[in-house]
Amino acid sequence: MEKIILLIDDNEDDAKLTKMSLESNNIANQVIVIDDGADALEYIFCQGKYAQRDITDIPAVILLDIKLPKVSGLQILEKIRADKRTNKFPVVLLTSSTEEKDMIEGYEKGCNSYICKPVDFKQFAEAIKQLGLYWLVLNKIPNNII
Hints:
Elements: E1 5-8, H1 12-24, E2 31-34, H2 37-44, E3 61-64, H3 73-82, E4 91-95, H4 100-108, E5 113-116, H5 121-138
Parallel strand pairs: 1-2, 1-3, 3-4, 4-5
Helix pairs in contact: 1-5, 2-3
């Protein structure tokens, strides 16, 4: 079964650019976009409108923005790492924040990678290409990590 990419980002333009960059680099995995932190937690933990989702259907990677409405990306990361069902999910903080304190907190809370969104479209597309190649082609996760 093809693994999905879970993109949690409230910036519609960034989400579109991310999807376009993946597609233009022949990364055909389904991308699920969620635009606020509360909905993201419901999706990840199969609650609310996502109660029918199977928690063992693990995203290939979660691309998580830090600044989100309702629940921040760092709070989401903390909840993912605190639950043994989800604590091994690969989580990449994909954010416009270049603040050192955000990077430090991201790594302290257990992100697998921290990527600053480049402002330039060409650089952004290249960053997404590299991200996709690594997390979807090169990186391996065990089938039964839950």
